[in-house]
Amino acid sequence: MKIHQRRRVSAFPLQIVLIIPFILQILGAVSLVGYLSFKNGQRAVNNLAEELMARTSDVVDEHLKSYLAIPQTLNQINADAIRRGILDVRDRQIVGKYFWDQMQAYDFTYIGIGLTTGEGVGAARYDGKTITIDDWTAEPPNNVITYATDNQGNRTQVNARWDYKNTNESWYTQPIAAARPVWARIITGNYPTGPYIAASASRPIYDAQNRLVGMIAIDLHLLKLSDFLRTLDISQSGQVFIMERDGTLIANSITAQPFTLAGQKIQRLQAIDSPNSTIQSIASHLQVSKGLQSITQSTSFQLEVQGERHFVNVVPWRDRYGLDWLVVVSVPETTFMGQVNANTRTTIALCLGALVIACVMGVFTSRWIARPMLRLNQASEAMASGNFLEQTVETSNIRELNTLSNSFNHMAGQLRGSFAALEKSKEELEDRVEERTAELKNTLEELQRTQSQVVQSEKMSSLGQLVAGVAHEINNPVNFIHGNLTHVQEYTESLLEFVELYQHHDPNPAPEIQSVAEDIDLEFLQEDLPKMLTSMKLGTERIRQIVLSLRNFSRMDEAEFKAVDIHEGIDSTLMILQHRLKATSSRPAIELVKDYAELPLVECYAGQLNQVFMNILVNSVDAIDESNAQRTYQNIKDHPNRITIRTSTVNAQWVEVGIADNGVGISKEIQQRIFNPFFTTKPLGKGTGMGMSISYQIVTEKHGGKLECFSTPGEGTEFIIRIPLRQHVKPAV
Fold it and tell me: What is the pTM of this model?
């Protein structure tokens, strides 16, 4: 006769069974939180770097426009004065003092005229402080006399004599070749007052008979651009530089100047020869991979420099007088990643600390649970071996184990009285174990639901902080622009009225004025400019409304109950969802019907209630889009999509908000489960199943209200929210 032995199954101690899943769960949560924290930090760094570089490029662009526009404008004013005979170029004494006065008003390095006769006069400020006057005749040698001046612009003494022919200079020859105002090539010099690198704004000048008289030019000291770049906040950690299309540096934010001295001669630097390794690498990358001449629009990229990643933004800068430069902004990743890495390390340290604490608590908890179980096991083994006497188990501080011990003791007593009752007691014990298992399962599900709600709440809090921060940053410049548009409009209207008055009193202007008026299409400009300013004013007003909606939706300062306007929260939510409601290529815009009653202020958690509106409205738009999948554009246009929002008061103590759509509707089976946690009908990755569950909890538990869903498949769905006006009112039933 064969004896079949039962195969021995590997068994694990109860302490390990209790601890290992708990540790694995905590470890998974710690790893996920650390990974998400790192990824979110990187994403935030990229966005912040792009925003910082764009803002810096805009600041540089505005400075270049204002700094480089003044010379050309002043040249035109002086040329007009000469053409009209207001300024006599033959009287070099008066012209020199005239230019001296303009040097007092503007930050120029040089302003002067060179006549076709070879004569000329100019005012200079090479050291940035002292103004001198140069007066020259046609033929060298020593035809230029430099005079010192007093505080009235009068010539006092001769400082120097030197040779000069203005007809050989680029500021004189290039405007003649171009037959229009231009920027002459950049000139350099090393004077006793210091290095000199300047750009010359030059234009031809004519007399009243439109005959060429000579050239007028204004020099700007380009080293002042480097001084400006060094004042930018970004220059403390990043690099900003400007270069010509051939790669020659014009200005940079580093302490080193964009030139070298070869003996006593200034030699301008190529960007690839800069002493700064970052500027070298960026310039080399642009020349090799993109080509400086081919950059026609703003370009952003990332570049590795000496093992460190840099964010780079390249913006072309041009004007109508021939300047064609490249503005480059670079920011190292470490500028932003320092705090992000510190926060990540702190998060990981806290998570690991929580893991250690959880493990320690798990060990003590498992021992606390396992010890009475071990005593129960020993008594059971004794009874299995036939020893029924004195087999009782001490009670435990754990309710379930205490109940189990009492059951065991009762079972032992029954066994001593009757062996036949053993089977029945065993069944009772198994039932009790199953009941406790079901209770533990329910507890675990509740824990998972609570964790998901906490994650969702943290996401909404982060979103609120981000929205409030962005709204605050946008609000200040928009208010500045909006406030100044009124003054710009008044000034523009005044200028247009002045032009009309001038046209009225001088209907036959000079041919040159008539030609310029035709070139700029003066009539169209007079008609279109006020419209353009009105459009800009409407646009800034629209931005202010959007910013206000973002701030109202975020409600960052309303952590407690507060009396608010419910309509304001609904409108803010609709403003944020405007991109989902407007027309697309596949459907017309969703019609929005507002049936608002006059409501008093309602005491509530405003931010959380806005979250409820957002969840319901997003589901309504998704339901409408789902119903449109099988419909043509014309069919949708004939039977338009619609979302209806109505508000009312109930019994003067409750406020009711109804949100209805004409989407696909919801079946009875789904309606019964729609507020269950983790339940969703959306495809994988489209939804978590927590939106409506959290909304139900916010309305019912946080506000003592009621949230109901009424739907007919194929016709639409309506959600009705009812909350008390004051929180001392009993919840709705």
Answer: 0.47
